[in-house]
Amino acid sequence: MPRKIVLTGGPGTGKSTIIDELSKRNFRCMPEISRQVTLKAQSEGINQLFLADPIRFSELLLKGRLEQFQVAEDLLDNPIFFDRGLPDISAYLDFLGIDYPEPITNTIEAHPYELVFILPPWKDIYTDDNERYENYSQAEKIHHFLFETYSKLGYDLVEVPKDTVISRVDFILKNI
Q1: Cα–chain center distance at 154
Q2: Cα–Cα distance for residue pair 149/52, rounded to 1 Å
Q3: Can you say whether residue 159 is alpha, beta or left, with left for phi > 0 and alpha for psi between -120 and 50 degrees?
Q4: Closest to 15 in 3D by CA, of 176, 157, 173, 160
Q5: Burial letters for 119-147: b for 16+ Cβ neighbours within 10 Å, e otherwise?
Q6: Which CATH number among 3.40.50.790, 3.10.450.50, 3.40.50.300, 3.40.50.150 corresponds to the domain 4-174?
Q7: CA 61 to CA 160: how far, in whole Å?
Q8: Which of 27, 73, 114, 126 would give a disulfide with 12, using CB separation of 3.0 to 4.6 Å?
Q9: What gap in Å lies between CA 49 and CA 35, rounded to an integer?
Q10: Can you give the residue ranges of the NadR/Ttd14 AAA domain (predicted)?
């Protein structure tokens, strides 16, 4: 059974809701940390750190996601679900068309996950909020970059069908 499983997808596709349901079912889950980074920057007067300084934002995400990855290495839980993985960082930078330092790429490549589920764009559930800067059209583009990034890294992505939260979680659990 895969140990480290990533749930990825563009903004507003239901990843965090699925992670919450997996947690309720007593699975170990690593939460999305970009909201924490964004909220901390906002408390320091930077409305959207990702847009103001994408490299700094990405380096903070890299640090946090790498810590999650390393924590997972020491846990006996199987499986462990991640709300986004390290490759999401380069996908978002590619979406912006920004060159990034080689250590980001090296860190991503050195820390593989065993399985990746991707959630497709879904207009019916997409919502805006204070930490999300992307509109739905951008979310669709980000989905493409995520798919390409993970594919280039050799991952075979499993697409989670659009359905109820319970059915989506059941699908994930049947496919691990």
Answers
A1: 17
A2: 23
A3: beta
A4: 160
A5: bebbeeebeeeebbebeeeebbebbebbb
A6: 3.40.50.300
A7: 24
A8: 126
A9: 11
A10: 4-166
pTM for the complete prediction? 0.90
Torsion angles phi and psi, residue 89, rounded to 5: -60, -50
Rounded Cα–Cα distance for residues 50 and 61 (Å) = 10
Beta bridge partners of 116: 6, 157
Side-by-side strand order, sheet with 4-9: 28-30, 80-83, 4-9, 115-119, 157-159
- Element containing residue 24 per DSSP (H, E): helix 15-24
